Structure formats: structure tokens, C-alpha cells
Amino acid sequence: MIISFELKKPQSGETADELEVFLDHAGLESLLAQLKFLQDGRTEHVHLMAESWGGSHLNEQPQGQENTVIHHVTILLR
Fold first, then answer.
1. How far apart are CA 24 and CA 72, in angstroms?
2. Which residue of 12, 16, 26, 50 shows the fewest CB atoms closer than 10 Å?
3. Which pTM was predicted?
């Protein structure tokens, strides 16, 4: 399963403010299930974390060349 949130490496003079999200079909289904918790009102937020951060949703290895992996993503419903 692939779910990976990554900061794209900036070009010279730019800041690292571009997020890339990589999914395979299993990762997409997992993310949709987490978002469904929000939609159904079962929670106000979900956490997606890499294994090294105590989770099981996010990949540790970057999918994009020279990207920086984000190890913890919190999605909040407002």
C-alpha cells in the first residue's frame, strides 16, 4: 500500500512549499476510509503516520526523486 505525502524539492531560490501526494489503489481506498470517518461525524480529525512514528498508513521511502517524506499528517474537519 502506498500513501506518501512529500515536500517537493524546491528549485534554486524557491521555498519548499509544494506538496505531492502519492497513492496506489490500496492507499487510495485507505485514505478514502479515513476521510469517511470525518464525513460520518465519527471524529473531528484523523492522523496518518509512518511506522517510525507509531502508525501504519504513511510510507517511509519517498516516491518522488529528492522529495522529503512527511511522517505525520493530521486531517481536521472544521
1. 19
2. 12
3. 0.87
